[in-house]
Amino acid sequence: MTMKSKPTIGEWFKNRHVLITGATGFMGKVLVSKLLVSCPDVEKIYLLVREKKGIDPQTRLQSIVQQEPFRQLREHHPERLKKLSVIPGDVTIEGLDLSPSNRDCLIQQVSVVFHGAANVKFDVPLKDAITMNTKGTANVLALAKQMNNLKSFVHISTAFSQCGEKVLEERGYPTPISPENVMTLVDIVDNDLLEALTPKLLGVQPNTYAFSKSLGEDLVNRSGLPAGIARPSIVIASWKEPAPGWIESMNGPTGLMIGAAKGVIRSVLCDPNFLIDAIPCDIAVNAIIALSWRVGLENPEKPIFVNVTESGENPMTWGEALEYGRKHTLSNPFSGILWYPRGGITNNKLVHWICVFLLHLLPAYFIDGVCLLTGNKPFLVKIQSRVSWGMRLVQYYTIKAWIFRNEGIKELRQSLPVVDKETFFMDTKAYDWDPYMKTYVLGARKYVLREDPSTLPHCRYIFFWYWVADGIVRFGLLALFSWFIYTLISPWLFTKTLVGVLEN
After folding, report:
1. What is the pTM of this model?
2. Residue 496 has what pLDDT?
3. What is the mean pLDDT of residues 36-58?
4. Three-state SS for 400?
5. Has residue 9 got a pLDDT over 90?
6. Strand partners, 278
7. Three-state SS at 55
8. Residue 209 pLDDT
9. Which helix (H) or strand (E) holds 475?
10. Average pLDDT of the chain?
């Protein structure tokens, strides 16, 4: 198919019925919003949503469309929101817990599926990870295989699904144990035994998340469907859409940045010279949509794998990320900080744990002790315990380096019709990390911490006095240390001087 004969992405999606799982998540919201904004002629978008915490699916959708990703649609194209249709269901249940009428509707109408529902926590029990990320994928595939008009099935995986591979190629990888056997195992083995078996089952994988996602990939790879598998790396705040700096999760770098900016995290085990492969969520979503378009045009016999990664095209090291983050969080401080933020990163485990003991644990126990003596409720040891646990989970990824082949996203960029190159921007070389990080910091402040930009002047005022207090404390500690050294040395100096006088 020549470039001129290719339909644009918007044209290809015209009159199509789309099914999306995981639409209530971080990337899911961006995906739904982008389709409605940039593919206005899409006929219907079905969102598979389960009841959560007693809130029914329809109410959850009403809440979601009031959020930032849908602001542009609410203000300029509210009629497009009517294209959204909630389908009550649950990917973890065989048959997706669909009503007969909804099942028939999806089978007859849907031609594009985006499967993004996942449990992205690193520390969940194996049973939970397999149930959502592997069995959930199997259940969605089972429905997709019944669809009469299916043209494109896109599975959203992760670039860290094969952590045992130094170089991640854009292809499928065999699993040491079949997904079907693992799914059967978690159903028949009790939780205690399963927990004991988990390390053996994981093999080279660092956690249940990576393991379960690798199994999900294998299911899609063997499905026989016209499919694409998108593997985003570390997904961070948006570059442009739905709003610059939009982010809603404290996972990954966002949590580290906020913790450091509030003075809670003062040491991170990380190699400052390693490249951080992070990609803005809007670029990742554009690549995912473009992949579905490509699959629909090519009807491949085997899935098309695309590593949605930066892969050195616009390199930034962890050390550079720290400096950019420090620069912009000091200029745009958060409210409710614990202390003036200092600290850094090191790849020396001994140095790191000494810093954790001196800068995390000792201050936490001291402050909680003061709280107890003054009749207040202690809080900091609990916070530091959670922080330490979270840091142990992510440090696997901060002290290792991988090479991600990304010819797939380059080919997607090149294959787009001219009109789509700007609409579905995917060029990771197009932005500068320094101003982007400022936008990221302001976005985390606004969307994650819910701090209005109007509070910045007051926060800067408070921040200044924390800086003064930090300087006083540092000077006091230096003076105390100097006095301590002096008291140790002065008797020796006095004795040596006296002996010298007597000898003369």
Report:
1. 0.92
2. 57
3. 95
4. coil
5. yes
6. 234
7. strand
8. 96
9. helix 456-503
10. 92
Query: In angstroms, rounded to a whole number, what is the distance separating the alpha carbons of residues 429 and 444?
Result: 23
Cα 342 to Cα 326: distance, rounded to the nearest angstrom: 9
CB-based contacts of 9: which residues, under 8 Å, 6+ apart?
38, 39, 289, 290, 293, 416, 417, 420, 423, 424
Q: Give the confidence band of 249 by pLDDT, cuts at 50, 70, 90.
A: confident
* pLDDT at residue 494, rounded to an integer: 53
In 3D, which of 285, 239, 252, 276 has the Cα closest to residue 432?
239
153: three-class secondary structure by DSSP: strand
Name the β-bridge partners of 87: 48
Say how far apart CA 363 and CA 384 lie, in whole Å.
10
Query: In this structure, what are the phi and psi dihedrals at residue 332, rounded to the nearest 5 degrees?
Result: -130, 70
Q: Evaluate whether 279 touches 235 at the Cβ level (below 8 Å).
A: yes
CA distance 435 to 120: 28
Q: Is pLDDT of 334 > 60? A: yes
Average pLDDT over residues 475-482: 81
Is the pLDDT reported for residue 501 higher than 60?
A: no
Q: How far apart are the first and last CA of the chain?
A: 102
Burial of 9 (0-12, 13-18, 19+ CB in 10 A): buried
Q: How many CB atoms lie within 10 A of CB 118?
A: 25
Task: At 138, list the tokens.
Answer: 């199997």
Share of residues in the chain with pLDDT > 70 (%): 96
Amino acid at 366: F
Beta bridge partners of 271: none
Strand partners, 18: 45, 112
**Residues with Cβ within 8 Å of residue 376, at least 6 apart in sequence:** none
Counted residue by residue, the chain has a size of 504
Q: How far is CA 55 from the centre of its chain?
A: 25
Query: For residue range 381-426, what is the model confidence (pLDDT) as tens digits?
Result: 888 888 888 888 888 999 999 999 999 999 999 999 999 999 999 9
User: Cα angle at 460 between 458 and 464, to 5 degrees?
Assistant: 120
Give the 3-state DSSP-derived string for 232-300, with helices as H, strands as E and coil as C.
ECEEECCCCCCCCCCCCCCCCHHHHHHHHHCCCCCEEECCCCCECCEEEHHHHHHHHHHHHHHHHHHCC
Question: What does each C-alpha distance from 63 to 26, 56, 372 come to in angstroms?
Answer: 14, 11, 41
The token duo for 86 is 């909630």
CB 12 within 8 A of CB 293: yes
Q: Token digits for 124?
A: 């969940």
CB 285 within 8 A of CB 208: no
Question: 323 - beta bridge partners?
Answer: none
404: nearest Cα among 289, 318, 304, 310: 310
Average pLDDT over residues 97-117: 97
Distance CA 371, CA 152 (A): 58
